[in-house]
Design a protein that fits this description.
The protein is an alpha+beta fold. It folds into two domains: about 5-150, no CATH class; about 210-424, no CATH class. Helix content is about 30%, strand content about 20%. The chain is built from nine helices and 15 strands. It has a six-stranded mixed beta sheet with strand order 9-10-11-8-12-15. Strands 1, 4, 7, 13 and 14 form a five-stranded mixed beta sheet that branches. A two-stranded antiparallel sheet has the order 2-3. Helix 1 packs antiparallel against helix 2, helix 1 runs parallel beside helix 4 (about 100-115) and helix 2 (about 35-60) packs antiparallel against helix 4.
């Protein structure tokens, strides 16, 4: 096939996928299994056509192929996806580059599989299969190895909660229920006494996708840049915006709702036990004991607070009359690591004047994500400032795997594995 024929074939396959997505959107339904298989097969055809295009391009540049096999020449790598280029195409009303269209198809498929609706201009999957070409042309370079790559920096790298050891789930489909087991009991009996039922009780922790939206404003001058550094900076800013919002919600004081997870600081509001306290060594030991008595003192144990909280803890001496170690020294408190993020609430407790301090088994905090990143390019809202607004939508939920289920003010998704205080 000629280069023109290969390009036409690729355009036809892309158009076939577009029709399948449009049909499902029009009928307001999910893709059928057969449609999903067809799209995945078409994506594989696109990759094969890209390889053939690359091979034909090399032949046209060197028709005779003389001495190419014997020369160790690194071939120019295939054009990769660029978010900056995709945004510029949208802002200027141009057709998306082929690599951006390919990425959109993969993103659409990931959102569809997750059962989540995505309507943005640019859809980025969490992971994608990237072609890695190596070797000498016509002597092995056409053999393509595949490896999983990410476009946006992994969210786990941006979250203090991940460093603390939280459980992170991706690639989910629909609502997810994780079983929680209350444990098995045993008892001594006489030789002839009947045994009693000793099985523990199973419960479920239910996770439902909730839309998280973040906004990043980027100057048009910045979007005119065409460098690896500029691309990395933009991707980092988007990942940071999502991470900050997700973490500030989990470590905030919002009540559980159908649109967002509960915050760990929810419920630390009034009463003697919830009042803002000046921490002491006894306070710290009491928090650890509260987790221990629920048999949760195991796993990824540690403290989380904000910068104000760290400053307070570093100035308080453990012993009486100001004698002894400081509560927080060398990044640890009472033998456990202390993680600091300014996403932790600084307005919790009575009078909204306390800084959140949480101790617990962070492996029991589960953060779930559905699909990838749905990006809408808004060239109008801040156009008068010479900027382009980028709106990022992603779908998350967060809960403690052993939280208590109660109604009203008694509800706490994180109670069993975590102890919380508002400190000043």
């Amino acid at each position: 096939m000629t280069i023109l024929e290969l390009k036409d074939a690729k355009a036809n396959v892309l158009a076939d996928n577009d029709k399948l997505f449009e049909s499902a959107d029009t009928e307001k339904r999910s893709l059928t299994d057969q449609e999903t298989r067809t799209i995945e097969s078409n994506l594989q055809k696109i990759k094969e056509l890209d390889l053939k295009l690359e091979s034909e391009s090399r032949k046209s540049n060197d028709p005779k192929g003389t001495e190419v096999r014997n020369r160790k020449i690194l071939d120019t790598p295939k054009e990769s996806f660029s978010l900056i280029k995709a945004i510029n195409a949208r802002v200027n009303g141009r057709t998306m580059p082929d690599e951006a269209r390919d990425m959109n198809l993969k993103g659409q498929l990931e959102f569809r599989n997750a059962g989540v609706s995505a309507v943005g201009d640019i859809l980025i999957p969490i992971e994608y299969r990237a072609d890695i070409l190596a070797g000498t042309p016509t002597a092995g370079q056409e053999i393509v190895a595949e490896d999983k790559k990410t476009i946006l920096p992994p969210l786990t790298d941006k979250l203090i909660l991940s460093k603390a050891g939280a459980t992170f789930l991706t690639g989910l489909v629909g609502n997810v229920s994780i079983p929680s087991y209350a444990g098995t009991t045993a008892a001594w009996k006489t030789e002839v006494e009947a045994a009693t039922e000793t099985g523990g009780a199973f419960t479920e922790v239910n996770f439902t996708p909730k839309r998280l939206s973040a906004v990043v404003d980027v100057s048009k001058l910045f979007l005119a840049q065409d460098s690896i550094g500029a691309e990395k900076l933009l991707l980092d800013n988007i990942a940071n915006a999502v991470a900050r919002k997700l973490e500030s919600t989990i470590l905030g004081k919002g009540v559980l709702s159908s649109t967002e997870p509960a915050g760990m600081a929810f419920g630390i509001t009034t009463g003697d036990t919830d009042a803002v306290v000046t921490p002491t060594h006894a306070t710290i030991v009491a928090m650890e004991t509260a987790v221990d008595v629920t048999n949760a003192l195991d796993g990824n144990l540690g403290y989380v607070t904000n910068s104000y909280g760290r400053g307070i803890l570093k100035n308080i001496v453990e012993g009486p009359s100001g004698v002894g170690r400081f509560l927080l020294e060398d990044g640890e408190m009472n033998g456990y690591p202390v993680y600091v993020t300014n996403s932790a609430s600084h307005t919790c407790g009575a009078g909204s004047s306390g800084n959140l301090l949480v101790f617990g088994n962070w492996a029991d905090l589960c953060i779930a994500q559905w699909g990838g990143y749905d990006i809408t390019v808004d060239p109008y809202t801040v156009a008068h400032e010479g900027q382009v607004r980028i709106v990022i939508n992603a779908y998350f939920d967060a809960k403690g795997l052993r939280g208590t289920v109660a109604s009203g003010s008694g509800f706490d998704d994180y109670k069993t594995s975590f102890a919380k205080k508002a400190i000043i």
